[in-house]
Amino acid sequence: MASDNGLAALGAEGASAAAHALSLPAEAYGNDPRLEAMWAMKAYNHAEVYFNLISSVDPKFLKLTKLDDQIYSSFRETFKELDVKRLKEDDLKSDEAKERWRPFCNQFEGLVEDFNYGTLLRLDCEKDYTEENTIFATRVQFFAIEITRNREGYNDAVHISKRSQS
Description:
Elements: H1 5-23, H2 33-56, H3 68-78, H4 90-93, H5 95-106, E1 118-122, E2 134-138, H6 139-151, H7 156-165
Antiparallel strand pairs: 1-2
């Protein structure tokens, strides 16, 4: 993954303004392309940090939130059959999927910080973030799927692969 030179190019004032802008409600902006670029940069940086984390630490031992147990049990109760190893876009984006995801996500409003912020999610957990392997999801969807991947051993492949390269 590329470095965060885009953030460095903003400088301290720009980074502070970006952080403030990203904390405002979406209704305040419309479709401002600068804001979309800042959101994309923030989501990319989050993805890069997370991938580096699962590459260097055994994912089974990671705790992503204070509510990992609740998120995991609710997720597996709601999405028993979902193949978290290799997601398809329809697993999150089809009308039927959205109807199932909405109540799941909303139960964590006020409990998981920024529960509905946009986050990048890998479709195939054995691969890195690439354009073909990445989908936009809410933060609570990311947590639910990645907590499940960590606990069920699906992210082990990334950790083992990166460890054997060092």
